[in-house]
Write a structure and sequence with these properties.
Blueprint (H helix, E strand, L loop, with lengths): L21 H11 L3 E3 L6 E3 L1 H20 L3 E2 L5 E3 H4 L3 H7 L4 E5 L2 E4 L2 E4 L4 E8 L4 H11 L8 E10 L13 E11 L2 H21 L5 E5 L11 E8 L5 E11 L1 H5 L3 E3 L5 E3 L1 E8 L1 H10 L16 E5 L4 H20 L4 E3 L7 H10 L4 E5 L1 H6 L1 E6 L10 H7 L1 E5 H29 L1 E3 L3 H10 L4 E5 L4 H11 L2 E6 L12 E2 L6 E2 L2 E5 L3
Parallel strand pairs: 3-9, 17-18, 17-19, 22-23
Antiparallel strand pairs: 1-2, 4-8, 5-8, 6-7, 9-10, 10-16, 11-12, 11-24, 12-13, 13-16, 14-15, 19-20, 20-21, 23-27, 24-27, 25-26
Length: about 525
């Protein structure tokens, strides 16, 4: 795809084909879609308005689901005293290598060099939050005294810092945006119900809003959240066959309530420690959208998450035509807005229509409406879809022609919502087909090696009864790991039942999901 007339230098550029260089393709889609860019701070990113608008739509969708399940939003400090982090040993050791530490609170100039002021050294170092369990549970101690104060269902929208050595936009950055739920319960049963409930919320969001099919299951002991007794996850497959962990929900037991000494008086008048959960998703979900749906023309967005669902482009050659087509574009936009469609009229002058098409396609806008003088004469509209479902053996040119439809004006406007709904479903079905095509039930190491080293890999259903060191061996040999231990209903019928561990040959009760991952 070459640069078109009117394209702004540095704003949109050709996308490297996925088949040629997947990693560069991913970065090119982000650049062309004006989603994000690297910041002057190593490992951090600037989320541009279009990228942030997608995150805002995710926030709204998720926040509605959180509030529907009884949760409230609050906000807690960015800084955590070092002593708080060390109260839960596994938690502290799990995040130790990723923590950013603050030791001074001001600078001074010494011989022309700006350095930390020795007199401003903190009595206790502060950690820039990598996650908020410890600071939140310090507050819960003040909020919880009786069983009447429970359950306490709190969510926080925030930023966190984890000092990653190797970063990639959206997928892994030193600072990222997320939400983190932190709940307190009177019984283990209630806490476990919360853990499962919130994983279900994430899975529903991933599949019905993001159009990304996921596998729900438990993490192995070595992959659990630091300080958790149990971690559940949803795992999606990207177009290169690798897995992406898209959300986690943790049962923390009484580990954090004991560390913060949070007790409550139960109905029998006895004191006991509170049971806890935490759960979260992050801006990594934007990376999931890109890698699940986009193509060599750029970003493709499911309509439910598109900040602009329909862009209308007036086409003209004279001032008279510009006036008439722009007026009609505004009228069509008003009618679509009345139907609840997010619509924008691109009235920018000095940019050729082809360049506008290219730009909005790169931004993933689901539908484009073109209005020219001939359309006005015929009383029709041209509607172009960002994508259509593939037909086996179809030539690219034939597919491009199928993307455009000419309809009478009223019929065209009435077709927009049904078309957006159809595209949402088609994206999900397309992602499911890709996952199915790159998923295998594997029983021997020979077949496993062939799948991942010769056939490109994907998801492998394998029997497993190994240890953490055995998992490490698989990672070294094949660069794969156990994504999760799926719930029974997540395992396809042909992969169910008992068997023998792929590596050790020991008896195995069920299969696990193995893959390369991000």
């Amino acid at each position: 795809m070459g640069k078109q007339d009117g394209q702004k230098t540095g704003e949109t550029a050709a996308v490297t084909p996925r088949a040629k260089d997947y990693a560069q393709w991913y970065l090119d889609v982000i650049k062309q879609g004006l989603l994000a860019e690297h910041s002057p701070v190593r490992g951090c990113m600037v989320i541009r308005p279009h990228g942030y608008a997608i995150w805002e739509k995710m926030q709204r969708e998720l926040d509605d689901r959180f509030k529907a399940t009884g949760h409230e939003n609050a906000y807690f400090p960015l800084f955590i005293p070092l002593s708080f982090l060390t109260k839960e040993e596994k938690h502290a050791s799990g995040f130790a290598k990723e923590c950013a530490v603050i030791t001074h609170h001001r600078l001074k100039s010494v011989n022309g060099e700006v350095v930390p002021d020795p007199e401003s050294k903190l009595d206790e170092p502060l950690i820039v939050r990598p996650t908020s369990e410890t600071i939140i549970w310090a507050q819960y101690k003040n909020w919880i005294q009786s069983y009447r104060d429970l359950p306490l269902l709190i969510n926080q929208w925030a930023n966190v810092v984890r000092w990653e050595m190797r970063t990639r936009l959206f997928l892994r950055t030193a600072e990222f945006l997320w939400q983190e739920g932190h709940t307190a319960h009177a019984t283990e049963k209630e806490a476990l119900e919360e853990v499962w409930r919130m994983l279900g919320v994430y899975a529903d969001f991933a599949e019905t809003v993001m159009a990304v099919p996921v596998v729900k299951g438990r993490k192995t002991e070595g992959e659990r959240f630091a300080g958790a007794i149990e971690t559940l996850s949803i795992e999606g497959m990207m177009q290169d066959g690798k897995a992406l962990q898209m959300g986690t929900s943790h049962y923390l037991g009484q580990n954090f309530s004991k560390g913060a000494d949070v007790k409550f008086q139960n109905k029998d008048g006895q004191l006991e420690y509170v049971y806890a959960t935490s759960w979260g998703v992050s801006t990594r979900l934007i990376g999931a959208l890109i890698m699940t749906h986009s193509d060599d023309a750029g970003l493709i967005l499911p309509p439910k998450l598109a900040p602009v669902q329909v862009v209308i482009i007036p086409i003209y050659k004279s001032d008279d035509e510009r006036g008439r087509t722009t007026e009609e574009a505004r009228k069509v936009a008003a009618e679509l807005k009345a139907k609840g469609v997010a619509v924008k009229v691109d009235e920018r002058e000095g940019i050729m229509p082809g360049a506008k098409y290219y730009e909005w396609e790169g931004k993933g806008v689901p539908l484009r409406v073109e209005i020219g003088p001939k359309d006005l004469e015929k009383g029709s509209l041209c509607i172009a879809r960002r994508f259509v479902s593939e037909i086996a053996g179809e030539a690219p040119e034939a597919q491009r022609k199928r993307r455009k439809t000419f309809l009478p004006r009223a019929e065209a406007i009435d077709s927009v919502l049904p078309t957006l709904d159809a595209m949402q479903k088609e994206l999900f079905e397309r992602a499911k087909k890709l996952r199915a095509a790159r998923t295998r039930v594997i029983d021997t190491l020979e077949d496993y090696e062939k799948f991942f080293k010769d056939e490109g890999g994907g998801f492998a259903w394998v029997h497993w009864a190994g240890t953490s060191s055995d998992e490490d061996e698989m990672a070294k040999r094949f660069e794969t790991g156990i994504r999760n231990i799926p719930f029974e209903d997540q395992i396809p019928p042909e992969a169910r039942g008992e068997g023998r561990c792929l590596l050790t040959g020991k008896p195995s009760k069920q299969r696990v999901l193995m893959s390369k991952s991000y």
